Amino acid sequence: MGRVIAMVFGGARNRSPSPSQLHCDKFKGIKGAYIELLLYTFFKEVMAITHAKAILLDQLSANANDQSWYLSFEQAVQGITEEEAFWRPDAANHSIAEITYHLIYWNKAWQIRYDKSDLHAVETLKDNADTFAVPPEHSFSDLKADLLSTLLHWQELITSEQKLDEKVPGFPVAAEWWNLIGNTTTHNAYHIGQIVYLRKMKKTLA
């Protein structure tokens, strides 16, 4: 890269340099090395965030409807009935519909926060249990369509925005947006696994 920078900023010399020119060339050498370091640091950061974006897009796609090593949400709920969706193994556990509603809440919350670059654009509920409380008028068919649409919206949001490497203002510890969105993909995968397990339990206990 140093040779390329030399060509851009100075070019080759064919005649013997004078002492003043040697001093100038030495300065240019230092300047060139500094510029090279800046360019290297810049491109290293660009490549790192580009790599992070690609990973996030891949994982969020796997959450939604892209076949991966685990079932996507679309695959996990394929063919499920309303009765199966609202079935609970016991009072201490959530139904598939409740888990789906919980995922809708948290994905939409982080999408709004990311879009507005503001952690407080959506205030966290005092009790996380409220994020599982499905309103009576909601069918699972509606919930399923809503979550799938929400998960797919991440693709558009991350592709169009250029702030994954920015610090999240107001977050309790130092973190960039890509950290928190990465946690969201893990959270999605965890609950999708629960959905698959609940379907297996329903068949076993039926």
How would you sum up this structure, described in words?
This protein is mainly α and 206 residues long. The N terminus is likely disordered.
Quickly give the structural class: mainly alpha
Order of helices and strands: HHHHHHH
What is the count of β-strands? 0
Uncertain parts? 1-14, 35-48
Indicate the mean pLDDT.
Answer: 82
End-to-end separation in angstroms reads: 67 Å
Q: State the major sheet.
A: none
CA gyration radius, whole angstroms: 26 Å
Range of strand content: under 5%
Q: Which descriptor suits the 3D outline?
A: globular
The tally of helices reads 7
Helical coverage, percent range:
55-70%
Fold blueprint:
Elements: H1 2-9, H2 19-64, H3 73-76, H4 82-85, H5 96-116, H6 140-160, H7 177-205
